[in-house]
């Protein structure tokens, strides 16, 4: 698919989407015409939320962003990126700890498609310490996670852990 728009695919498990992810998308919109937030079926993790729940939560968060599209994908990321006519894969980098994993993925994706570039944005300092795993742990154990996830995700987490009717 050929397109003149500069499209980036932001892939992830998004189990669930956090305010760190949201901040990264907003900053990515300064660079790209359109961002496709691609929610992975195949991921190295065992997700808490089903694929449709993860897509639904992210879609609701970005419902008022006309340059952001949320979609599920399965199979190889690079095939999906090509099918969308995107030129870049967008990823966030929180700390040195992320580097090796991100480096491996970026190099493998580059080997698979040399004309698609991975673009890293540093995560805003406000979100450096958060991760989906940490947030799920705190929510599961009854802690307050308001402010680190979008409101609809907060409800989704509370519902999952029986903290909402
Ligand atoms: N702010 C805060 N936290 C952030 C963040 C940010 N800006 N960016 C990432 N994170 C956190 C997430 O909360 C998440 O935390 P967790 O590890 O506790 O769950 C972690 O960093 C990364 O998760 P996420 O952003 O959802 O991405 P991922 O690493 O799970 O995504 C895929 C991996 C889906 C991109 C990869 O497995 C894939 O491409 N799969 C498709 C199959 C394929 O092609 N495989 C070969 C790849 S070379």
Q: Which topology does CATH recognise? A: Rossmann fold
CATH class: Alpha Beta
Count of structural domains: 1
**Which sequence of SSEs, written as H and E, runs from N to C?**
EHEHEHEHEHH
Please compute the radius of gyration using only Cα atoms.
Answer: 16 Å
Summarize the helices and strands and which ones pair or pack.
Blueprint: E1 7-12, H1 19-28, E2 34-40, H2 51-61, E3 68-73, H3 77-83, E4 88-93, H4 96-112, E5 117-122, H5 132-140, H6 151-160
Helix pairs in contact: 2-6
The structure holds coenzyme A.
Can you describe what's shown?
By secondary structure, this protein is of the alpha/beta class. The chain has a single domain, classed as Rossmann fold (3-Layer(aba) Sandwich). It contains six helices and five strands; from the N terminus they run E-H-E-H-E-H-E-H-E-H-H. A five-stranded parallel β-sheet has the order 3-2-1-4-5, with helices on both faces. Helix 2 runs antiparallel to helix 6. The longest helix is centred in the middle third of the chain and has 17 residues. The protein is globular, with a radius of gyration of 16 Å. 32% of the residues are buried. The mean pLDDT is 94. Coenzyme A (COA) binds next to strand 1, helix 1, helix 4 and helix 5.
Give a quick precis of the structure.
By secondary structure, this protein is an alpha/beta fold.
Index terms:
6 helices, Rossmann fold, binds coenzyme A, alpha/beta
